[in-house]
């Protein structure tokens, strides 16, 4: 497994280089002024802007600019944000804790609801309860996350007042206090519920179908013939094999949750990496945009590796050579 992991990690390098070139090229092709955050917007003198472009190397050939950027990237220098006037690494580091908190919380909600509904629907297929779960799955797959977020804000924030509709913590609380952490949890619950419940449908359907399929296998018939309790059959035989696909999905969730939080964080004005990425695109903050894109690309590749490793761990029949 160690050799397999090392080979996969080494294989990521040329792929990341290719992704970096595509990301860099697309960033340069975007319309707009890349200096809008660095140059005084009131100064529209074309000569002044051209002088700044020449000074900062934006008139160099694309391969020269790319070589300079990738060299700095390898050394850990992500550049400087045009908007925030800070190093990009510092700007992203300030947002990552909020996004990770949102992603982990939503993942917990996803797996709790998926296991509960998937196990129920799988044990009682083609019943009224199974049809209700299927209806929820169809709605979860059909309704866009931004629609669900707007509806959740309208009812649970404006009408009922149960949850705040923006921010990650209440204003005026001292960092590190008990009230501060309670406020963080209170602010993250609603966006995490929206993000988690919208992702529950596919997990529930996979678990339900696997439970039904495994319940028809020969080893289950043998266990029933021996008089094994039905609860033991489901818990120790059927469910153990049915959770394998869900465990492997955990690796993919490393990147998909962060990427999927872009819309959710924007709707709830939640200060995370997703909202930062959308802001960087809108305001042409190319250094931040490219750095976040590379981060998501790396997490996607790393998530694929984790998924393969988890598959080999939960299913001993799989050998990773």
UniProtKB/TrEMBL annotation:
Gene3D superfamilies: MetI-like. Residues 96-307 form the ABC transmembrane type-1 domain. Keywords: Cell membrane, Membrane, Transmembrane, Transmembrane helix, Transport. InterPro entries: BPD_transp_1_N (IPR045621), MetI-like (IPR000515), MetI-like_sf (IPR035906). The keyword Phosphoprotein does not apply. Its main location: membrane. GO terms for cellular component: plasma membrane. It is a multi-pass membrane protein. It is found in: Cell membrane. GO terms for biological process: transmembrane transport. The chain crosses the membrane at residues 9-30, 100-121, 133-156, 188-207, 243-268, 288-314. PANTHER family: DIPEPTIDE TRANSPORT SYSTEM PERMEASE PROTEIN DPPB-RELATED. Belongs to the binding-protein-dependent transport system permease family. This is Peptide ABC transporter permease. It comes from Lederbergia galactosidilytica.
